[in-house]
Amino acid sequence: MITADIHTHTHYFHGKNTVREMYQSAVEKKLSYYGFSEHTPLPEGFSCLLYREGDMNAAFDDYIRDVLELKAEVEEYNKNAEHKNPQVLLGMELDFTPAYPDYMENIINRYPFDYIIGTVHFVEKQNIGLWDTGKASQKEKFQFFEDYYAFICQMAKWGRADIIAHPDFVKIHCIEDFHTWLQTAQALECLHETCKIIKNSGMVLEVSTGGLNKACKEIHPSPKVMEIAAEHKIPISFASDTHNIKNVANAFDDLADFARKYGYKEHTVFINRKPVALTF
Ligand SMILES: [Zn+2]
Ligand SMILES: [Zn+2]
User: Fold this and answer.
1) What's the gap in Å between 39 CA and the centre of ligand 2?
2) Which of 11, 31, 176, 224 has the highest local Cβ count within 10 Å?
3) How far is the CA of 82 from the centre of ligand 2 (A)?
4) Ligand 2 centroid to 265 CA: how many Å?
5) Cα–ligand 2 centroid distance for 1 (angstroms)
6) pLDDT tens digits for range 83-142
7) What is the three-state SS of 44-83?
8) Domains of the chain with bracketed CATH
């Protein structure tokens, strides 16, 4: 059984529920660890229509304060509790923006994070979530998939994050073309090279049910990507990437079955930036 959900959101950026409402859902699901990983404010020149309007920096400070308050409270409660509540972990989903290394470094150093989820939502300045795939030819899409994985490799080499978020996010609006691409020699070469670099980086690959709620309706990553990651023995973490109380630990039994098919028996959480392996 999977007892940790460590990629989750709150109402602070574009989720539906507060820190405490999300945590209550984790208590009801009997998790052992619940990690908050709100999006980071974006550097100048980047925008995401999905995120809140206004001062994202102030919202991010409020998010950190809420999580740290809850974390302290739960630690105190668990000291004497017979049935412990889920341990609270503080994380963030950091948009990888390699043109702004100081910006990323400053956010990482500003707060006492348990872990950093590195995420590629943007390839250069193209927001993948807003990519108009209807206008792109298959050749252009295949090129974009390669560009996406080049960004993932760059993030792994940068090495300041612990986890790689939804490692085939690029498929969300073009799942059929992505599956076609996965059957090409080019894709296999690209993914083996990517996995080699991830393995060397010591980063963990996220396996998430978040994709089930997107247009692609598929777990991240796709079976072929998972097979190659397993071949390279890359450790994994589990997540729902939920934005509401309903999807906390969503379909985790299916997620466990999926990972077991590729030989996985352990998943990773991070406490104070140190990996901790759990069985499932
Ligand atoms: Zn994301
Ligand atoms: Zn997310």
Assistant:
1) 7
2) 31
3) 33
4) 24
5) 22
6) 999 999 999 999 999 999 999 999 999 999 999 999 999 998 888 988 888 889 999 999
7) CCCCCCCCCCCCHHHHHHHHHHHHHHHHHHHHHHHHHCCC
8) 4-279 (3.20.20.140)
